[in-house]
Amino acid sequence: MQDPVSAINIPDVDVWQLLFEQPKEFSRHKSTAKTLQLFSDPDLKLTTSQTFTSTMPPLPPTVSRMSSNKRSNLAVIWGTHYCGGTVFPMNPAYTAKELTRQLLLSKTKAICTQRNFLPTVREAALEAGVSQAMTLIGPDESAGTNSLHDMLTLDVAPVPRLPVTSPEQDLAFLVFLTRVVSAEGLDVPTGEQDELWLKGATVFSCYLNDPKSTSECFSADGFFMTGDIVVKDSDGYFNILDRIKELIKYKGFQVAPAELEGILMCHPLAADVCVIGVDDERQATQVPMACVVLQ
């Protein structure tokens, strides 16, 4: 399969090297610059040495993160990657039972979370046998936890970074083979919509310790079946239309709720719209039903 775009030179560096070990100017965009400066190389090494090295031997660890979106998450993510570990993100809406399953599945050694999630995390950690100290993201403190905020203020020697043994598996550039594939496994022509498949070194290789889920989303020839419904235009750009699981199956046709929602949102009285599929026994098929919030 030949990509129509001209060949480009791809540097053989991993993500960490690209972001933190090469000379660069910080972006002029204030938010981007503040984020990169806050979690620059020394701070991340500090987080690594204090949290993941001293409290969780042996390396590399598997660290579960259950938190809302915060800039502080970057220290956890990159600190873990720095010492060769694996980050396992958890849905903050998980119940203790759901979280326990994920902790066992991922073989988690430590957990980073926020104070408001502590009751759920502690219940799940006890059930899953995760005995290592937890780290709180942010300035909060609680008995039996470390504070990431405090760790970033300590003066400790950073640990050496583990070498990358296979940089081709951790490239800093998104390079994919792409296909738009029908339910029958056939490539569809340009301009027709169907599922996007991806393949490349930067596509995740598997669900951690979950071969069943992995086999369900990869084709026999190694393409990741994204579940996204797309259409590819004549210039090679992809427009994402919807998700397969959300498609409404009307008399053999696949109807994208997002397309109908877009049409209804054009009405001046519509503040918000959600289109779902409901069974119609008389027609023996699904039909769209719109839930509309008025202005």
TrEMBL record:
The keyword Phosphoprotein does not apply. Residues 259-294 form the AMP-binding enzyme C-terminal domain. Signal peptide: none annotated. Gene3D superfamilies: 3.30.300.30, 3.40.50.980, N-terminal domain of ligase-like. GO terms for molecular function: CoA-ligase activity. Keywords: Ligase. Coiled coil: none annotated. Pfam families: AMP-binding_C. The keyword Transcription regulation does not apply. SUPFAM superfamilies: Acetyl-CoA synthetase-like (SSF56801). Belongs to the ATP-dependent AMP-binding enzyme family. This is AMP-binding enzyme C-terminal domain-containing protein.
